[in-house]
């Protein structure tokens, strides 16, 4: 049958990694104005939100999401959202996960100039406007901690930081696996301390060591990269694995069959992650 991308990326148990190539729609909202009650304001003993299996969701990292879409949770770029929309989601008992570039620096972020030149490294291979960071640098960590606090103030319920496999990239710095693990653990601690759940996306060197620290896995195009097995440790620990494959309407049926065999409830997204995607459960 013929397939076409819909207007919104709705599905279950999935999420995306950001592939920005355009300026943000706006600066971060203030702590007082965005998202209603901060995710950091958890009651004693209360656990942070973690997406449940089979929850309906929408993922869009380019522009503002339409909160009228039928979704239990959203994955979004908080800087591009209307604070009133974020507050409305929580008022309705819905949730949102927020994007954070954990190991790289994007030129359109409002704090771009705060990062020291000595800690800004080589361009990312696929995104030449984006630069790797020296995650050992204390100023980098201070700024990332500030970003985490800002996301909590915007009401974010969880954060799956991207670009954590710094040891495996040509960063321009002599970063080891130990450096990557130390930074990822440190960042997860900051996210948890702010009252949010933390998601992990990375190589088996990271997932095999860090799954106890993180609340859910984030598999990006793992079928195409034959890396889905790296997230088995999360499934074995009964932690959700959120999954999305980049593709189109032509490739979606085969992708979805492969995902079904793996036990994943997957989405097929356009490369720009603009909200145009297909939910495998609506195809099979």
Q: Key features?
A:
284 residues, TIM Barrel, 23% helix, 17% strand, disordered N terminus
Q: Superfamily at the CATH H level?
A: Aldolase class I
Q: Any guess at the CATH architecture?
A: Alpha-Beta Barrel
Number of strands: 13
- Runs in which pLDDT lies below 50 for 5 or more consecutive residues are 1-8, 10-38
What is this structure, in a nutshell?
It is built from 6 helices and 13 strands. By secondary structure, it is an alpha/beta fold.
Structure, described:
- This protein is of the alpha/beta class.
- It has a single domain, classed as Aldolase class I (TIM Barrel, Alpha-Beta Barrel), CATH 3.20.20.70.
- It contains six helices and 13 strands.
- The protein has a six-stranded mixed beta sheet with strand order 8-9-10-11-12-13.
- Helix 3 packs across helix 4 (204-210).
- Residues 1-8 and 10-38 have low confidence and may be disordered.
């Amino acid at each position: 049958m013929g397939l076409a991308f819909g207007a919104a990326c709705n599905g279950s148990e999935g999420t995306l990694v950001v592939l920005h190539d355009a300026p943000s729609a706006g600066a971060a909202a203030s702590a007082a104005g965005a998202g209603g009650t901060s995710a950091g304001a958890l009651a004693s003993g209360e656990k942070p939100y973690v997406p449940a299996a089979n929850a309906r969701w929408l993922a869009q990292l380019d522009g503002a999401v339409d909160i009228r879409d039928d979704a239990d949770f959203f994955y979004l770029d908080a800087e591009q959202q209307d604070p009133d929309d974020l507050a409305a989601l929580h008022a309705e008992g819905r949730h949102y996960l927020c994007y954070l570039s954990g190991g790289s620096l994007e030129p359109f972020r409002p704090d771009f100039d705060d990062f020291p030149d000595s800690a800004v490294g080589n361009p990312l291979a696929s995104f030449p406007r984006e630069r790797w960071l020296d995650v050992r640098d204390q100023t980098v960590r201070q700024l990332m901690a500030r970003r985490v606090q800002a996301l909590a103030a915007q009401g974010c319920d969880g954060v799956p930081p991207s670009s954590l496999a710094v040891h495996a990239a040509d960063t321009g710095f002599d970063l080891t696996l130990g450096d990557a693990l130390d930074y990822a653990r440190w960042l997860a601690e900051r996210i948890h301390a702010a009252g949010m759940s933390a998601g992990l996306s990375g190589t088996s060197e990271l997932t095999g060591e860090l799954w106890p620290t993180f609340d859910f896995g984030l598999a990006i195009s793992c079928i195409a990269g034959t890396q889905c097995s790296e997230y088995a440790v999360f499934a074995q620990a009964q932690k959700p694995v959120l999954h999305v494959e980049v593709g189109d309407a032509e490739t979606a049926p085969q992708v979805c069959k492969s995902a079904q065999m793996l036990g994943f409830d997957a989405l097929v997204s356009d490369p720009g992650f603009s909200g145009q995607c297909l939910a495998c459960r609506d195809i099979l």
